[in-house]
Amino acid sequence: MGALVILGPFLLSFSTALKTPQQFATSSPLSLPAPFTFENFARLFGAEHNFVSPIAVTVQMTLVILVVQLGCSILAAYAFARLQFWGRDVIFWAYLATMMIPAVTTIVPLYGMLTSAGLRNTFWALVLPTLFGSPYAIFLLREYFRAVPDDLEAAARIDGCGTLRVLWYVVLPHSRPIIATLTVITVVTQWNNFLWPRVITTGDDWAVLTVATAALQSQYNGNWTLVMAATTIALLPLLLIYLLFQRRIVDSIAIGGFK
């Protein structure tokens, strides 16, 4: 029953996307499409709406943030976990405390900073606020890095490995499950990001998928089949990513519980 409640909205969205507006208006929302139609998807990718551009912008934004944010988080987490320097723990806990601040409170200052820098309604405005690391990712990675046996690192240094080689050849291979989990979390978070792209961009040039779908809903408020088609398009990549990484996610939970 719980699974049905959770999966119900997704199934209803997909079912509605395969209906014509006439079918949706004259039949129960829970009824199956009869017949199935892909007219709504064709309209989205036609010249009228051109959903290719929002998808391309969203993919670019997600990939850039994923690569740079994960890389910066790994370097910071390794420094906090394995290196010794003055004020390490104070800096870490102060940085981690920023997770307690609601993200919405930083929107106005960020908007003012990026607007003053002339970056409003640009690609860099979309990615810069979350590009250089995540407190949540750094925290999880730090805990995993601390669990790597010290003997492995000592042996690698005896063999002549420097800090970066120890990280690459010793620490990261033992942390693949948590990195895969953070990859999924980062992709889902950025793919579904709505508020910041809506604030910092205008027009269609840099509209992401969530903003384009919201604009479609307000513009075609009565045509729910078209809106559900856009929602289905936004959901499918996330489902595929989860299917690809689900084993790694389960491994990270199991290993974390064992420790």
Task: Give the SSE layout.
Layout: H1 2-17, H2 21-26, H3 39-44, H4 52-82, H5 88-96, H6 107-116, H7 123-127, H8 135-146, H9 150-158, H10 163-171, H11 176-191, H12 195-200, H13 209-219, H14 224-258
Helix pairs in contact: 1-14, 4-8, 4-11, 4-13, 9-10, 11-14, 13-14
Structure, explained:
This protein is mainly alpha-helical and 259 residues long. The protein has a single domain, classed as Orthogonal Bundle (MetI-like fold), CATH 1.10.3720.10. 70% of the residues lie in helices and 0% in strands. It has 14 helices and no strands. The longest helix is centred in the last third of the chain and has 35 residues, at 224-258. Residues 255-259 have low confidence and may be disordered.
Q: Determine the strand fraction and express it as a percent band.
A: under 5%
Work out the helix count: 14
Under the CATH scheme, which architecture would be assigned?
Answer: Orthogonal Bundle
What is the residue-averaged pLDDT? 85
Q: Please give the number of β-strands.
A: 0
Task: Please bin the fraction of helical residues.
Answer: 55-70%
Low-confidence runs (pLDDT<50, min 5 residues)? 255-259
Structural class: mainly alpha
Order of helical and strand elements: HHHHHHHHHHHHHH
Q: Outline the biggest β-sheet.
A: none
Count of the separate structural domains:
1
Termini Cα gap: 33 Å
CATH class: Mainly Alpha
CATH superfamily: MetI-like
Shape: elongated
Q: What is the CATH T-level topology? A: MetI-like fold
Determine Rg (CA atoms, Å).
22 Å
